[in-house]
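Shapes recur. One chain:

:::
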Amino acid sequence: MVTFDDVRRVGLQLPEVTESTWYGTPGLKVRKKGFCRLWGEREHQRDRVHDTEVLVLFCEPEMKPVLLENHSDVLFTVPHYDGYGAVLVRMADAGIDDVADWLEDSYRRVAPPTLVRQLDGA
């Protein structure tokens, strides 16, 4: 089980990440661009997912079907995210290693190239 405290701990190790709110829920941003956030009550009600906290992360759009198929026990989507490079994480079922990888991938989708190079040690 992963908590948002775990997500925060891992995410704040990435270059220039700040904790903030995004759509009224806790999230992480890099240079004011969000790359992960918790679902809010409105989304839980809209999509009828009540059994776990849900984390929104970005992914490459062409990788989304592969991620969903390979991690169907943890990752899912809802119609609201159709056509977007975003996946939803059932945090109660997730492991920190997978979440850390997906979090870094999400960061790379929105971070400026200079910060991605910094992350890569270039």
